[in-house]
Amino acid sequence: MSKNRDNSPPPRPRWPRYGVDAPAFPAVLGAAGTACCLAAGRWRPRRNAMATAGAVLLAGTGVYLHTTLHGKLRIWQRELDRAGLTGDERLLDLGCGRGAVLIEAARRLPRGQAVGVDLWSGEDQSGNRPEATLANAAAAGVADRVEVRTADMTELPFADDSFDVVTSALAIHNIPTSESRYRAVDEAMRVLRPGGQLIIADFWPMARKYAAHIGQGTLRGLGPGYWYSGPWLGVTLLHTVKKG
Question: Which residues form the Methyltransferase type domain (predicted)?
Answer without folding.
Answer: 92-200
